[in-house]
Amino acid sequence: MDKKEIQQRVLQNGKPLSLDKFEWDEKTNTFSSDEDNLILDFKEINNCIFKTGSYCTIKAGNDCTFSTGSGCTFNTGSNCVFSTGSGCTFDTESYCVFSTGSGCTFRTGSYCTFDTESYCVFSTGSGCTFNTGSNCVVVRRDTYEVIKLEGDKKIRLNGDNIKGYKDE
Q: What percentage of residues in the chain have a pLDDT greater than 70?
């Protein structure tokens, strides 16, 4: 895809982003822009790298990497890596890795790894790992259980529909 084709997939204020406001590397499928408030539609394109400003909405395929500012919304396939600012929303498939700021909401598939700051909400499949900031709790909807996390304590939840956890 050339830069003109990419331009049709990136909107700012309802119009295609000016060609001089972004870079597109066809060899690495890398989109780069310092602009905020972008809407990017790459939902059927895999193996992309996105570097954007804040408050962007990004739809992407599988195996993508994101480095963004704050307040972004992502709807992606599997095997994606995110490094973002605060206040982001993620709706992904499985095998994702997240490194974020505060106030994030995650809706993911299984086998995700999270490294976040405070005030994050997670709704995930099984096999996920969390490294969080302070004042966090685990709410298990499958067993109607609330587990308060203490300091740097690591836990592993018991299997599906079995209350409790093990110290790691």
A: 99
